[in-house]
Amino acid sequence: MERPEPELIRQSWQAVSRSPLEHGTVLFTRLFDLEPDLLPLFQYNCGQYSSPEDCLSSPEFLDHIRKVMLVIDAAVTNVEDLSSLEEYLAGLGRKHRAVGVKLSSFSTVGEALLYMLEKCLGPAFTPAVRAAWRQLYGAVVQAMSRGWDGE
């Protein structure tokens, strides 16, 4: 797998990382639009909510959004040495598998990530930036997928 273009990744992430919660909420709103079946996986805090909007604004879910954005931030920081995150990402994969997330759902998460970046960056979200993020996200999911090994 080709390495993503570090400079494009870092520059584009700067705009997002200024308000991670706001952009993370855009990501998850899009995710639930694309794959509503994922919402019940968050029953630990969404069972009592009647809509994705209510769930997204719950303190527990905001905490999850923060964590997801921190993982992306770590991938951006280590874009030139993603292998240093491999064990951590495999563990993250195992945690997601344990709560019933299917590996295939991560392709939808990838679409939601690209959507969020496009919304945040506007015209600066060029085809080259999109390609760099696809590569980076692909590498992250590849590492996380080890958490599903041996199923």
Automatic annotation (TrEMBL):
Subcellular location, record wording: Cytoplasm, Cytosol; Mitochondrion matrix
Domain of life: Eukaryota
Transmembrane segments: none
Globin domain: residues covered: 1-149
Key words of the record: Cytoplasm, Heme, Iron, Metal-binding, Mitochondrion, Oxidoreductase, Oxygen transport, Transport
Catalytic activity, as annotated: Fe(III)-heme b-[protein] + nitric oxide + H2O = Fe(II)-heme b-[protein] + nitrite + 2 H(+)
InterPro entries listed in its UniProt record: Globin, Globin-like_OT, Globin-like_sf, Globin/Proto
Major localization listed first in the record, in broad terms: cytoplasm
Gene Ontology CC entries for this record: cytosol; mitochondrial matrix
GO molecular function terms noted in the UniProt entry: heme binding; metal ion binding; oxidoreductase activity; oxygen binding; oxygen carrier activity
Subunit structure: Monomer. Homodimer and homotetramer; disulfide-linked. Mainly monomeric but also detected as part of homodimers and homotetramers. Interacts with 14-3-3 proteins; regulates the phosphorylation of NGB. Could interact (ferrous form) with G-alpha(i) proteins (GTP-bound form).
Family designation: Belongs to the globin family.
Protein purpose: Monomeric globin with a bis-histidyl six-coordinate heme-iron atom through which it can bind dioxygen, carbon monoxide and nitric oxide. Could help transport oxygen and increase its availability to the metabolically active neuronal tissues, though its low quantity in tissues as well as its high affinity for dioxygen, which may limit its oxygen-releasing ability, argue against it. The ferrous/deoxygenated form exhibits a nitrite reductase activity and it could produce nitric oxide which in turn inhibits cellular respiration in response to hypoxia.
UniProt-recorded name of the protein: Neuroglobin
